[in-house]
Each structure stands twice: as structure tokens, then as C-alpha cells.
Amino acid sequence: MKNLIKVLPLIAVLSLTSCKKDQKADQLIVEEQQAVEAPVVQTQDELVKEAQSKPLTTLALSEANFDFGKLKKGDHVEHIYEVTNTGTNPLIISQVKPGCGCTVPDYTKDPILPGQKGKITLKFDSTNFDGLVNKQAEVYANVEKAPIVLTFSADIQPN
Asked: pLDDT (tens digit, 9 = 90+) per residue, 13-44?
């Protein structure tokens, strides 16, 4: 309450000084401010619920784990995981969420029809790593057991 009493005179002064030269206080024009919304961060449960809100299907992966082998520190590499829709409904990949900022995902955004193939690409930047690393990404799609976890490993060698 004390803070409100301190702020009221300030509000009165600001409202009087914010009038244009030829305006009176009761003619004050209020400009609308656009609200900037913070990005919505979904929880894992929300991501799974969204992915499974579509008719469920099944998929087969070319592989769930990949080993880049030895890399030089600072190498930028990528691997493509092939996804085949083995179900009867279109496969919709709603999101691929990497475990850290060193991995950037890309994936087939269009629905993958039954019998068709899609791709999930994981791009890895080894700049901040030394030695053996294991990374993962979670794939949210309209399948029963979401998320699907893709992993890769690399042995980062000094330059």
C-alpha cells in the first residue's frame, strides 16, 4: 500500500507531461503497445500428447544409433536417419528435440504416407568437446511409444 501511495504522484505527473502541446489532459491519446509473447516451451508430456493427438501409426528406423568414429575437434558432421511408415495412417513427425545446443535437427515436415520414407537429420558441432561423446535427440510423432530416441557417438580428437 505504501508503494502505491509513492507511485500515484509519479503517474499523475507522467500523464500530464505526456499530452501533446495542444492537448488537454482529458484529450490524451493512448497508443496501443504490441505485446511481445515469450516463446512457449512445451513439457515432454505436452509434446507426447500433441504428437499422439493424430491417428496413430507405426514406423521403422534405418538405425537408432550411429557412431561417427574419430572426429577432429571443431568438425561439423551430420547423419541422416531414414524413417519408414509401416502403419496404415500418415506418419507425422511433430518435433525433433535434441539433448543440447550442439545438435541441430532437421526432419521431414510433410506427413509420410504408409509405405513411404522420410528423413531425420542430426547435425553435430564438435567444437566444445573432447574425447568420447554420446548425444541424443527425441522424436515426437504419432506413434504409441513416443518419444523415439535417436543417439549418436563420436570420439573427438584434439587438432
From this structure: 444 444 444 444 444 444 444 555 555 667 76
Cis peptide before 39 (omega within 30 of 0): no
- What's the one-letter identity of residue 37? E
For the chain, give the secondary structure using H, E and C. Answer: CHHHHHHHHHHHHHHHHCCCCCCCHHHCCCCCCCCCCCCCCCCHHHHHHHHCCCCCECEEECCCEEEEEEEECCCEEEEEEEEEECCCCCECEEEEEECCCCEEEEECCCCECCCCEEEEEEEEECCCCCEEEEEEEEEEECECCCCEEEEEEEEEECC
* Residue 152 cell numbers, joined: 549418436
**Predicted local confidence at residue 10, as pLDDT:** 44
Q: How far is CA 18 from CA 5, 57, 81, 90, 110, in A?
A: 21, 60, 60, 58, 52
Give the long-range contacts of residues 8-14, CB within 8 A, separation 24 or more: none
- For the segment 93-118, the average pLDDT, to the nearest whole number, is 95
